[in-house]
Amino acid sequence: VCSTWGNNHFKTFDGDIYQFPGICEYNFASDCRESYKEFSVHIQRVLNSNNHPEIQYILVTIKDFTVYLRPKLAVVDGRIVKTPYYSSGILIESTDIYTKVYAKLGMTLIWNQADALMVELDSKFNNHTCGLCGDYNGVPIYNEFINGGDYNSITYGNLQKISNPSAKCEDPDETQALPSCNGHRDECERLLTSPAFDDCRLRLNLEMYIQACMQDKCACNGNEDSFCLCSTISEYSRQCSHAGGRPGEWRTQHFC
Prior knowledge:
Elements: E1 2-5, E2 9-11, E3 17-19, E4 25-31, E5 39-47, E6 53-62, E7 65-70, E8 73-76, E9 79-80, E10 85-87, E11 90-94, E12 99-103, E13 107-111, E14 117-121, E15 129-130, H1 142-146, H2 153-159, H3 185-192, H4 206-220, H5 226-242
Antiparallel strand pairs: 1-2, 1-14, 2-3, 4-5, 4-15, 5-6, 6-7, 7-8, 8-9, 10-11, 11-12, 12-13, 13-14
Helix pairs in contact: 3-4, 4-5
C-alpha cells in the first residue's frame, strides 16, 4: 500500500515516510516496465482557501482507459459517468466520503476526495513501479533516496513531475530542507497510543506516524485547526483498518 495525506506526507510501498510539497502534476505510482505499462496514477495538489494542501485531481490510466477524478466527479475516456460505473475490468464507486477505483489487473485506489489517497497493488508489480510511491522492491530508502547521489525527498519528488509546458507551477526549492521538528513528541504519542488504537500498535510502525504528527504540529505554528491536528491521526486509523485492525472511536465532539 502506498499513501499520501495531510501536510504533504507520503508513505511508499516499501514503508518510507517523507514530505514533498509540490503542486505540479506528478507520477504517484506507475507500472514502469519498459514495454507495455499496465497502469499509471498521477496526482495534482492545490492549496485550498485555508492554505492547506488537498488533491485537486487524480488521473488514472488502466491499459487503454483513462479515468479522471475530481471530488464528486468521474470522467472515463472524456465522458462524465455515473457511479457505480463498471466496464472492462474497472469498477468506480463513490460515496459522499470516498471515491474508489478497483482494477482487475491488481490495483485498488481509495481517495477521501480531499487530502488522502491510498493505492494498493498486487504483488505481481513487485520491483516494477516508479513514482512518488517508489519502486516496491521491499527495500526501504536505498533505491528511492540514495540512488548513487545524496537525494533528499524534494529532489526525489521533483523528478516525478509530469512535463506539461502549459502548467503554471513552480518546483519546490531543493536547497530548502523541510524544517526538522523535535517538539510535541509527548502529545503525538499520547494521541496515537490512546486506547482506541490498541488494536493498531502491532500492525503499523507507530514511530513513523508519531514523526509525521510532530511535523504537522510544528507546521501549525500554534494555529491548531483540525487539518493539522487530525490528518495524520485519521491516516493512522485508515491504515490500521486496512491492515485488518479495528480502531475504536477516537473522534469526539471536541476533537476531529
